[in-house]
Amino acid sequence: MAGQEIQQSIDQNSGQGSMGYILMGGVVGAGVGLLSNPGTAQQLYRRVQNSETGQIIAKELGRNVQQLITHQVMAVVQHSTPDYLNKAKKKTYGHVFQ
Question: pLDDT tens digits, residue range 26-43?
């Protein structure tokens, strides 16, 4: 009895997941269809560019990209700095220790 209830629950959940994928596919398809018309796409781009929300999103996206790049550069510098310092020490003090 409990096994049947579990199976029914699994079947219901998988059905809900499938419905979500169908709805998401429909929304994506409608968006692609809307943007494939050059006139509609240009109007949409202009509206987003001129809207306050679009400008806020663009600024926030720019900040996030800038922070991501900064963190990546800092990680590379922190990772490679000890190697450069060790090489410089060997060049500078290498003759003393030989």
Answer: 888 888 887 777 787 788
